[in-house]
Structure prediction request, 212 residues.
Amino acid sequence: MDSNDDLPPADAAVALRLIRDQQADTALRLEPDARLVYWPWGVAWLVGFGLLFLRFSPDDRVLIRLPDWLPLTTLFVLLVAAAAVQAVAGARAYGQVTGDSARRGLWYACAWALGSASVYTALGRVSDHLPHDLAGLLWSATAVGLTGALHMAGGAIWLDRDLFRLGVWISLINLAGVFAGPGWHALVVAVAGGGGILVAGTVARLRQRHRR
Prediction:
């Protein structure tokens, strides 16, 4: 004979609540650790753009004499590492997800890849005709601006307020850095951008722990 625990709930409201609880629990288990999604990018921006500011400061000053290739190489390596960490975390969390959610994720990733390739190819054709400081500003401001726009798009797709707000923040500090000019832009992005991403990751992680 079945025990009472095996019987379906007699109250439809209770049954609906159980279904919603199970759906929420499944969503939480499939959600990647926010620290792995945000923090690697925050560190990459903080360190990479920070080195750019120290080597290529405003008015052609050099606060710390570093090899010219080191800041950009460091930024690139850290960005690749951040992308790899996020990809692994996402694959572990969403590897079993199919349907519309999987398609949204795939198309969003394609938007990042093709959008970045298109923008950087165009920049490569025109940046050689600009002074060194303005060419650097153009590259960094465009990359940060694209990041902010795609973060807002991702927030709109998944109705993620935190992701959308982060995109707005990145876009605003990018504008502030552009108006401040070459050199200053790197400092603004390092501190306010990288720091903002680290804070966003911390807040998102605290909310994950609270929901669980």
User: Anything to note?
Assistant: The helical segments are 12-30, 34-55, 69-94, 100-126, 132-158, 161-180, 184-211. The chain is about 80% helix and 0% strand. The chain has one domain: 28-211.
